[in-house]
Amino acid sequence: MKEYIRGLNLIDLVSEKHKVLREKVSADSGDPLNHTETHILAKLELHGRLSISDISRRISISRQGAQKVVNSLLEQGYVEAVQVEGNSRDKYISLTAGGLEVCRRMLEIKQKIEQEIAAKIGAEQVKLLKQLLAEDWL
């Protein structure tokens, strides 16, 4: 492990670990998706369907940025756009079978990485870490 990490404050330490974990998930997946694309897919998996405005708010990017990323996901076949009933302007974005498959594979990769972490630090430590991170301290 890099020595500089031992001197980091909690916020920077969590950020560094998050970055490394995201990079590992991305590398292990083999999918050509970037962080924003996988973030949107995860939000759609969680919420079922969202408008572009909802997506932009939930992942804290501009509406135009969300539209650009969604257009890429549409082209790749991971999401579909469905007209909002009674509103010719807005559309809901939802996962296709391909998008659901990517989410399933990502979950498997995350579970494998969690098992690797448990093998290094112990299952009880992983359980404790998850409990601490899940608590309402922010």
From TrEMBL:
What UniProt keywords apply to this chain's record, in alphabetical order?
DNA-binding
InterPro entries per the record?
A: HTH_MarR-typ (IPR000835), MarR/SlyA-like (IPR039422), WH-like_DNA-bd_sf (IPR036388), WH_DNA-bd_sf (IPR036390)
What's the domain of life for this entry? Answer: Bacteria
Every copy of the HTH marR-type domain together lies at 1-138
Q: Matching SUPFAM superfamilies, A to Z? A: Winged helix' DNA-binding domain
* Gene Ontology biological process terms from the UniProt entry: response to stress
Show the Pfam families listed in the entry. Answer: MarR_2
Gene Ontology MF terms in the entry: DNA binding; DNA-binding transcription factor activity
Q: What is this protein called?
A: DNA-binding transcriptional regulator, MarR family
Instruction: List the source organism.
Output: Paenibacillus typhae
Taxonomic lineage of the native organism? Bacteria, Bacillati, Bacillota, Bacilli, Bacillales
